[in-house]
Amino acid sequence: MAKGCKYGTHRVLEPQGVLTQAAYKIDNKMEIFSNEILVDVHALNIDSASFTQIEEEANGDITKIKEKIMAIVNERGKMQNPVTGSGGMFIGTVCEIGEDLKDRDLKVGDKIASLVSLSLTPLKIEEILDVKKDIDRVEVKAKAILFESGIYAKLPSDMSETLALAALDVAGAPAQTAKLVKPGQSVLILGAAGKSGMLCCYEAMKRVGPTGRVIAMVRKEAQAKSLKEWGLCHEAIISDAGKPIDVLTKTLDANCGREVDISISCVNIPNTEMSCILPVKDDGIVYFFSMATSFTKAALGAEGVGKDVTMIVGNGYTKDHAEITLSELRESATLREIFEKLYI
Q: Which of 75, 128, 233, 276 is most buried, with most CB under 10 Å away?
């Protein structure tokens, strides 16, 4: 059994010299190298920005959504949306472990969730069984490969697979929020009614303490009302993240006329960069978790309005992010009930 590069470059077909995420096409043959793990995949959680784009292109037609996903994977050897560049994650059952990885705390039959993007993961889909449009999930008969460097989480025994997947899919967002938010700060969370948004709200409420302020931006009155009733924010504003002046005005109103210390983007549509930047004070932080973000627009936009803010790329990984996120569902009966209702 041959050994491959720990980062998977032996799987790159074109162009040569890049890592698998940047590659246009990778080798998705399911015979593993000695430092790879083969997984029977049960479900894909497609990145929200990617799924939204595919659904819009397909006009909501399930058959066309299936065809588009199959076409992408057949062409590229991985699930990487050519428009958004993003992927998602999978859950599955380990079916083979390369001999160089036998010392890991992992065995054949373990159920795991990938914590690396589908945009870099060799994937072969035999059949798409179902598409759950309301939660961006695709149930499949498929196989995938994790490289030596690939991170994963064993699925917990105290919650269902689908509940764990819903949370782990966006684990980077609340974990980064836990690192960034400090007591007494004011925080604006855009797209607060989605999975990542609610988890970020919960974490931000924990971190700001009694003297801080968490403002949730949503699209609908019912969402604003629910988030406040659930205790996930101090204030909720209703706006369109594509209208930065409206977001700014309503944020200032909700924060006693002051700009916020931190904004966190959890939206799944493009052209929202300035709605994240404008409400933040100089020397504040803008965290773009959304994969719909254009970092060119963000950088040039901040320059154009004279904003000296620290802008952070939405890295889906931070240390202990899986455990931090799952612990939120264990800590909060309210949050767990919401996720079980909406995402299972």
A: 276
Task: Say what the pLDDT of residue 316 is.
Answer: 79
Query: Where in the chain do CATH 3.40.50.720 domains reside?
Result: 172-343
3-state secondary structure of 193: coil
Contact 328, 322 (CB under 8 A): no
Question: Is it the case that residue 284 has pLDDT exceeding 90?
Answer: yes
- Percent of the chain residues topping a pLDDT of 90: 90
172-343 CATH = 3.40.50.720
In this structure, the number of other CB atoms found within 10 A of the CB of residue 268 comes to 24
Mean pLDDT of the region 128-140: 95
238: exposed, middle or buried (Cβ count in 10 Å: 0-12, 13-18, 19+)? middle
Q: What is the pLDDT of residue 169?
A: 85
Please name which of 224, 227, 223 lies closest in space to residue 205, comparing C-alpha atoms: 227
Question: Angle formed by the axes of helices 321-331 and 172-180, to 10°?
Answer: 90
